[in-house]
Amino acid sequence: MQSSKGIISDTIGIKAVPLGMNTLSTIDIFASKLMSHSYPTQPIPAVGAVVFKDQSVLLVRRGQPPNLDLWAIPGGCVRLGETLQEAAQREIWEETSIRIRAHRPIYFFDTIDRDGEGRIRYHYVIVDLLADYVEGWPTAGDDALEARWVTPTELDALPVSEATLNLLRGEKRKDAFPFEWR
């Protein structure tokens, strides 16, 4: 509902916000209330990018749940109007400072996490794309605690998310990667 002073919505707890304020915009507040990542009202579309360089794969250590402190393929949520490729390129840049060129989907999965009462705390539908490394050095950003290139041997010593292990070590990977990655 529009007022002369701003936007008012009783249903999600937003009060009148003066237009032209130099703080969080009303739309940002509205969007964060409407599309909360925890306890969502519907599945959240997300994307990841599988990037190789010199026989290593780009991974991040997650700084947010789900998979907090686990190493995983970098990625994040798809924004309205973005293609999967655009979302992957943006997310990998935000999380790792690496520029990529995203290509075809190679892995699909969902992450559903329930709380102690059985309520759905997180529900992501994730598409991982194969991507080419373009430039940059891994630097943790956004919600990543660390970002780095990981060799197959190093992967075995790290706490890695189940989906990432399934992707990198699973049988389906044989046809997905441009070379044999063990």
UniProtKB/TrEMBL annotation:
GO terms for molecular function: hydrolase activity. The keyword Hydrolase applies. Keywords: Hydrolase. It comes from the Bacteria. It holds the Pfam family NUDIX. Residues 42-172 form the Nudix hydrolase domain. This is ADP-ribose pyrophosphatase. It comes from Candidatus Kentrum sp. UNK.
